Amino acid sequence: MPWLFLLLAIAAMAIAFITPSTAVLLGCLLAALVLFVLWVLGLYQARVANQGRDLAQLLDPAELRRLREQAQARIPGDNDDDSSDSSIRLP
Prior knowledge:
mainly alpha, rod-shaped
C-alpha cells in the first residue's frame, strides 16, 4: 500500500510539470507532497510493525516471579518492622 502513495505522488508531479494552470500546479504539488509524506509514514509503520516482539517472551515466568517478589518486598507497610519507617508519619 505505501508504494501506491509513491506512484500517485509521481503522477501528481508529472501532472504539475505539464499543466499550464497555476492553480492545478499548486494543487498537484501539494498533493505530491502529502502523498510523499504518506509514503514515508507507511514505510516507517511497516518497519516498526515487523520489528515487534511477542511481549510474553520478553520475560520467562521464573524471572517474572522473581521481579514480583522484589516488588512486593519494596512495598512499605507489608513488613512487620515499623522502626525503619518511624521518621515518616502522616497525620
